[in-house]
Amino acid sequence: MYKATVIVKRRKDILDPQGKAAEQGAKLLGFNNVSDTKIGKYIEFFVHSNDLTVVEKEIKEYAGKLLSNPIIEDFEFKYEKVDET
Amino acid sequence: MYKATVIVKRRKDILDPQGKAAEQGAKLLGFNNVSDTKIGKYIEFFVHSNDLTVVEKEIKEYAGKLLSNPIIEDFEFKYEKVDET
After folding, report:
1. Residues 6+ apart with CB under 8 A from B32
2. What are B10-60's pLDDT values in tens digits?
3. Which tens digits make up the pLDDT trace of B7-21?
4. Integer Cα distance of B75 and A60 in angstroms
């Protein structure tokens, strides 16, 4: 079994309204030094297979088709072997 | 100036409906090896100060009050010095 971590980030130049909203809140709370907030996703899951080809294929397809929007986002991933519990 | 990265994760035992939804989609697409999907946030921003006490305080307060919900989420953070551009 493998544990996968996928990080999804908006492409540069794509507006990040959620980041903008958080930053407006920051200004209201008096944090004036904060800028360029980008809010992406940090996703963890298990892949129940020990065949590395299968594992990598499932991570890439899951990340590219369901966890990210390929039009506006990029993703990166890593995985590590973990013991079945 | 510092670049901060904050990772927000749901606490263990707190239901993750967004993760569950992604996983149902995975099953429809035929990825049957995926389980325990947890969807958190990966946030990047700049802090325009060179006073480390200020930088760390702003990151912690921004993360704890605006970027995460302390009732159901935990956050971790790191930061690195970057050149002013």
Report:
1. none
2. 999 999 999 999 999 999 999 899 999 999 999 999 999 999 999 999 999
3. 999 999 999 999 999
4. 26
Contact B45 A62 (CB under 8 A): no
Q: Which domains does chain A have, with CATH numbers?
A: 2-81 (3.30.1280.10)
Q: How many CB atoms lie within 10 A of CB B22?
A: 21
Q: Buried (b) or exposed (e) across B36-67, using 16+ Cβ within 10 A?
A: ebbbbbbbebbbebeeeeebeebbebbbbebb
Indicate which of B6, B27, B41, B45 best probes the interface with A, i.e. most A CBs within 10 Å of its own CB.
Answer: B45
How far lies B80's CA from each of A33, A59, B13, B48, B77, in Å? 15, 29, 32, 12, 11
Do the chains contact at B26 and A62, CB–CB below 8 Å?
yes
Give the distance from residue A11's alpha carbon to the nearest chain B alpha carbon, in angstroms: 13
